[in-house]
Design brief:
Elements: H1 8-22, H2 27-36, H3 43-50, H4 58-68, E1 85-88, E2 91-93, H5 95-102, E3 109-111, E4 117-119, H6 122-128, H7 130-158, H8 161-187, E5 195-196, H9 197-205, E6 217-218
Parallel strand pairs: 5-6
Antiparallel strand pairs: 1-2, 3-4
Helix pairs in contact: 2-3, 7-8
Domain HTH cro/C1-type: 16-75
InterPro entries: Cro/C1-type_HTH, Lambda_DNA-bd_dom_sf
Protein name: Helix-turn-helix domain-containing protein
């Protein structure tokens, strides 16, 4: 066996079978899951991928990851052996370093002394990573609103006016932080995700957002597909 680091496509061929076996899926079972997603990878195609006889497009990579319920980068990272991955002909890195780069935690890396990663193109990377920060801020702010709303409902159940007032204040504060997160996204020309109508209406009514007309209302679809 060659000692050269494997390319991501070579690791993916192996990892598809690793994760398929963990999910106790046959090749046909995986093909059926992909068909449910609207994909067209057949049992034969999946077998060829696992045998290294067929490549995988970007679309197919994401379909495989979705059907196997794994984060997409895990399909080209060998966690069991920890073997280096050749992300480019002259760049072979430990899987953990590749994972951190692929998930937006580190800039592009080169191999340094003693196998460590040396960051490169930091300024360019940080500009690109702005979107990651925006989405993390929005996610944390949304979770805080959920928690504040739960606390408000609990307070209302107690009937204590002072407790209720405090919970309402905390709820509005959380909505204000979320409005700031959404405003930051709009300012950076990033489409903000939709939020429940009640949240958006409060943010608009209280003037919590700089861009109230850019707030998106999300409403779940009914069983018949209608909103």
């Amino acid at each position: 066996m060659s000692d050269r680091p494997r390319r991501p496509s070579e690791v993916l061929a192996e990892q598809v079978k690793v994760w398929r076996d963990q999910r106790k899926l046959s090749a046909q079972g995986l093909a059926d899951r992909i068909k449910e997603l609207g994909g067209s990878l057949s049992r034969v195609a999946i077998s060829k991928i696992e045998n290294g006889d067929r490549g995988v497009s970007l679309d197919e990579w994401l379909q495989l990851a979705h059907a196997l319920a794994v984060p997409p980068p895990l399909l080209f990272i060998d966690l069991k052996t920890g073997a280096d991955i050749a992300i480019a002909p002259n760049v072979a890195l430990h899987p953990w370093l590749v994972w951190r780069w692929a998930t937006g935690q580190e800039p592009p890396l080169l191999r340094g002394a003693l196998g460590s990663g040396v960051v490169t193109r930091v300024e360019e990377y940080e500009r690109a990573r702005t979107a990651v920060h925006l989405y993390k801020h929005e996610q944390n702010a949304s979770e805080a609103v959920h928690q504040a709303l739960t606390a408000l409902r609990s307070a209302e159940y107690t009937g204590d006016s002072a407790v209720i007032a405090g919970a309402r204040s905390a709820h509005v504060k959380a909505l204000g932080e979320l409005a700031t997160a959404l405003d930051d996204m709009v300012a950076m020309d990033v489409q903000p995700p939709g939020k429940p109508r009640a949240w958006v209406e409060i943010m608009r009514e209280l003037g919590l957002s700089k861009y109230p007309d850019r707030l998106v209302i999300w409403e779940p679809k009914g069983a018949d597909g209608e909103r």
